[in-house]
């Protein structure tokens, strides 16, 4: 079993969903992003997604785009993400990188897998890579014991969904809304239907993301999903804060609220 497999075995035995939190590497700086991620873990996040800042993020909404722009302007580069992964993995939580595929290709697929594994990373989330074009990554990830997290959407055909779920490992990332990332006032009603479709073809854990901003929404999703994934709401804690200390406190408090949501009976 991978460390992600072990995490979901534990949360299922505890009869709760896992809490997955996202923050970008290098935002606002590499050192500050490490401190923010540590605060997120202290607040109760079970698994950390570290975003690799990208100049043309087609899936990301304005909050994460703004954070990526700040990180890139501050000099964030692909190699920096491995330092952030190492610091995050040292907290003891499974750590994955979320990235568009182009930076992985430019770095070198085998080299990226080796560097991620050496830093203590557990896997990679690839929002714009489909399994039928992922042969090189499937081979490299298998060679370095990394999980492959692919995305499914409400628009996925039954055939596409089954193929994607079969190729995934660790967990399946179900995007509960059609559109870009961003916190929303209400969670999507499509999430539960999408999870049911995944479970009809596999018992792999399913995480639901896009739109969660508070513990109440986290609780709604935890009622039917194996993991609740939160990104933009956590990033906004740093974007809106008057200083780093306030941002760190806000991230820890939000993570604590979200954790209470996924554990609420």
Automatic annotation (TrEMBL):
<keyword id="KW-0057">Aromatic amino acid biosynthesis</keyword>
<keyword id="KW-0028">Amino-acid biosynthesis</keyword>
<dbReference type="GO" id="GO:0004834">
    <property type="term" value="F:tryptophan synthase activity"/>
</dbReference>
<protein>
    <recommendedName>
        <fullName>Tryptophan synthase alpha chain</fullName>
        <ecNumber>4.2.1.20</ecNumber>
    </recommendedName>
</protein>
<dbReference type="Pfam" id="PF00290">
    <property type="entry name" value="Trp_syntA"/>
</dbReference>
<feature type="active site" description="Proton acceptor">
    <location>
        <position position="49"/>
    </location>
</feature>
<dbReference type="GO" id="GO:0005829">
    <property type="term" value="C:cytosol"/>
</dbReference>
<comment type="pathway">
    <text>Amino-acid biosynthesis; L-tryptophan biosynthesis; L-tryptophan from chorismate: step 5/5.</text>
</comment>
<keyword id="KW-0456">Lyase</keyword>
<feature type="active site" description="Proton acceptor">
    <location>
        <position position="60"/>
    </location>
</feature>
<keyword id="KW-0822">Tryptophan biosynthesis</keyword>
<dbReference type="InterPro" id="IPR011060">
    <property type="entry name" value="RibuloseP-bd_barrel"/>
</dbReference>
<dbReference type="InterPro" id="IPR018204">
    <property type="entry name" value="Trp_synthase_alpha_AS"/>
</dbReference>
<comment type="subunit">
    <text>Tetramer of two alpha and two beta chains.</text>
</comment>
<comment type="function">
    <text>The alpha subunit is responsible for the aldol cleavage of indoleglycerol phosphate to indole and glyceraldehyde 3-phosphate.</text>
</comment>
<comment type="similarity">
    <text>Belongs to the TrpA family.</text>
</comment>
<dbReference type="InterPro" id="IPR002028">
    <property type="entry name" value="Trp_synthase_suA"/>
</dbReference>
<dbReference type="InterPro" id="IPR013785">
    <property type="entry name" value="Aldolase_TIM"/>
</dbReference>
């Amino acid at each position: 079993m991978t460390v992600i497999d072990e995490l979901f075995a534990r949360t299922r035995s505890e009869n709760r969903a896992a809490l997955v939190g996202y923050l970008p590497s290098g935002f606002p700086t590499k050192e500050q992003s490490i401190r923010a991620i540590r605060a997120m873990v202290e607040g109760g996040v079970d698994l950390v997604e570290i975003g690799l800042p990208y100049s043309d993020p087609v899936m990301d909404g304005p909050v994460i785009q703004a954070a990526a722009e700040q990180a890139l302007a501050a000099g964030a580069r692909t190699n920096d993400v491995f330092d952030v992964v190492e610091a995050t993995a040292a907290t003891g939580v499974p750590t994955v990188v979320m990235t568009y595929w182009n930076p992985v290709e430019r770095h070198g697929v085998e080299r990226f897998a080796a560097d991620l594994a050496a830093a203590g990373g557990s896997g990679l989330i690839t929002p714009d890579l489909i399994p039928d074009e992922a042969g090189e990554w499937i081979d490299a990830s298998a060679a370095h014991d990394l999980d492959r997290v692919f995305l499914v959407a409400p628009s996925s055909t039954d055939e596409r969904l089954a193929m994607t779920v079969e190729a995934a490992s660790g967990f399946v990332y179900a995007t509960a809304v059609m559109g870009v990332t961003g916190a929303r006032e209400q969670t999507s009603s499509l999430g539960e239907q999408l999870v049911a479709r995944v479970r009809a073809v596999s018992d792999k854990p399913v995480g639901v993301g896009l739109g969660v901003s508070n513990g109440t929404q986290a609780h709604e999703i935890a009622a039917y999903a194996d993991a609740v994934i939160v990104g933009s709401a956590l990033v906004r804690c740093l974007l809106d804060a008057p200083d780093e200390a306030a941002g760190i406190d806000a991230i820890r408090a939000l993570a604590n609220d979200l954790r209470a949501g996924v554990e609420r009976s």
